[in-house]
Structures are given as structure tokens and as C-alpha cells.
């Protein structure tokens, strides 16, 4: 019996990689599927993994009727056993319902991948509907880490390395790399373009609540670090 499975986790925990791997494995065993995505970091109509692989995909827009798309293709003789749906946090609730209908009425397996919550810790509408409707919600085995080494549970948005809590729910972007490394890059780019650099950083709850990013922690550490030698008393 077909299933609707929601594979979820923070940003950068391997969801798109798993999506591409599952598609590969099913295809290798002769099953036919469709890939869908929505606002991937690498552009439209693509599923991209930070590890390198990417595959073309059908872009889901606000007006896409997923049920109608599957019916249309099947009517034209296309065989569809499963769907790989990436970035599902951006799908509308009604589109998740169309996916559930495809599982129940057309026996199509649906493997959905996405983050559950936004930079304000609120559920995205698509993810909320998936949590409500999925046969299973599976957290990814690979954990993204906070800069402190704990498991990251939250997706923080940063502007020039500083965590922000106001803004639009949707802003396509990427995670910063290492202790401030990319922040510096972002600052340089921002200075060149005059546009603030928007990024994301995965944090544990403690550091999300305290708004302590890798960048601010490194600044605080530098302020608190003792001088390497004693300054001699001047006469
Ligand atoms: N240069 C690299 N070497 C090894 N692993 C990497 C490298 N870059 C990224 N990764 C892995 O890829 C993961 C991100 O995979 P991706 O599928 O793009 O994540 P998601 O879709 O969940 O945002 C990282 O957690 C890391 O394990
Ligand atoms: C937290 C948060 C994220 N986004 C965007 C940023 C990325 O483009 C995607 C997540 O992609 P990933 O493959 O899981 O890294 O979502 C957003 O628009 N709003 C947010 O609050």
C-alpha cells in the first residue's frame, strides 16, 4: 500500500541528498517516478544537494495542481509509481492534500522532504499539513550541529552574521560555513553591492533563544579573551 512520508530536519541535514538517493534507488529497480521542487537554492526546476548531485525537477508554483498533473500524465500513458517532492515547506496546504489524495486514490508513494519550521520557529503551512496528514514523519538520521557542538534543532536567519527575528517567512538562502568564515564573505559582498547579506545558521535551542550565532559567539570570545602578555606599567 502506498504511503505519504515526510522526511524532515533542519537546513543542511541531507534532505535533498536523500531525495536524490531515493529517486536513484527506485529508478534503478525499474520504478517510475516524478521529481518536484519549489524554490531550490540552485534555481527553479531543480533538486540540488550541497554534496554535488542535482537533478531536474518539475517546479511547483502557487497555481500547480499536483493531482491534476498526475492524472494528466497517467491519462497519456505515463506510469507513475512514486513522487519525490523537495522543499515541501513552500507548498500550499492544498497541494499537500493533493499529494495525500494521490497516495490514497492512485496508490502512488509520495516521499516529501523539507524543513518543518521557519526562522521564527513557526511551522510552514506545507509542513504543518504534512505533519497532520502523513502516514509517517521521519527525522533525518544525520544531525546538523550548532556551533557549540550540540544537535541543531532550529534554523536561524542572519543578516551580516547577526540573527534576525523579523522578516518575511520565505527568503531563499543558504547556511553559513564555519565560524564566521562565510559571514566575512557575506559582508564583503554586501559592502560591494550595498545589499545586506542574508544567510541561515542551524542552532541548538539554547543558542537560538539567546540569539547567539557562531559570529556573535566568536566576537564575545574575542572580547573576553585575556591579553597574551602583561602590559608593563608605564612610569
Ligand atoms: N564538502 C562536503 N563534504 C562532505 N559532506 C558535505 C560537504 N558539503 C556538504 N556536505 C554534507 O551535505 C549535507 C547537506 O546536504 P543537503 O542535501 O544539501 O541538505 P538539506 O537538503 O537538508 O539542506 C551536510 O549536512 C553535509 O553532511
Ligand atoms: C528557515 C527558513 C528557510 N528558508 C529557506 C532557505 C532555503 O532556501 C530553504 C531551506 O532549504 P534547505 O535545502 O533545507 O537548506 O528554505 C526560508 O525561506 N525561510 C525560513 O524561515
UniProtKB/TrEMBL annotation:
GO cellular component terms, semicolon-separated: cytosol
Keyword field: ATP-binding, DNA synthesis, Kinase, Nucleotide-binding, Transferase
Domain of life: Bacteria
Species the sequence originates in: Arthrobacter terrae
Alphabetical list of Pfam families matching this protein: TK
Record-given protein name: Thymidine kinase
Active site: 87 (proton acceptor)
An annotated Gene Ontology molecular function: ATP binding
Substrates-to-products reaction catalysed: thymidine + ATP = dTMP + ADP + H(+)
Amino acid at each position: 500500500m502506498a504511503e505519504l512520508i515526510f522526511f524532515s530536519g533542519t537546513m543542511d541535514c541531507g534532505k535533498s541528498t536523500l531525495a536524490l538517493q531515493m529517486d536513484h534507488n527506485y529508478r534503478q529497480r525499474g520504478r517510475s517516478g516524478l521529481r518536484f521542487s519549489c524554490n531550490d537554492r540552485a534555481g527553479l526546476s531543480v533538486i540540488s544537494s550541497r554534496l554535488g548531485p542535482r537533478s531536474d525537477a518539475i517546479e511547483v508554483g502557487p497555481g500547480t495542481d499536483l493531482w491534476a498533473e498526475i492524472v494528466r500524465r497517467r491519462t497519456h500513458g505515463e506510469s507513475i509509481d512514486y513522487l519525490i517532492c523537495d522543499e515541501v515547506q513552500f507548498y500550499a496546504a492544498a497541494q499537500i492534500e493533493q499529494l495525500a489524495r494521490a497516495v490514497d486514490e492512485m496508490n502512488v508513494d509520495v516521499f516529501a522532504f523539507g524543513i518543518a519550521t521557519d526562522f521564527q520557529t513557526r511551522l510552514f503551512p506545507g509542513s504543518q499539513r504534512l505533519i497532520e496528514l502523513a502516514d509517517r514523519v521521519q527525522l533525518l538520521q544525520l544531525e546538523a550541529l550548532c556551533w557549540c557542538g550540540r544537535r541543531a534543532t532550529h534554523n536561524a536567519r542572519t543578516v551580516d552574521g547577526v540573527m534576525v527575528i523579523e522578516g518575511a517567512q520565505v527568503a531563499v538562502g543558504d547556511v553559513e560555513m564555519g565560524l564566521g568564515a562565510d559571514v566575512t564573505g557575506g559582508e564583503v559582498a554586501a559592502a560591494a553591492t550595498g545589499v545586506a547579506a542574508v544567510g541561515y545558521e542551524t542552532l541548538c535551542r539554547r543558542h537560538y533563544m539567546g540569539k547567539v550565532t557562531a559570529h556573535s559567539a566568536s566576537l564575545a570570545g574575542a572580547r573576553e579573551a585575556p591579553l597574551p602578555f602583561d602590559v608593563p606599567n608605564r612610569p
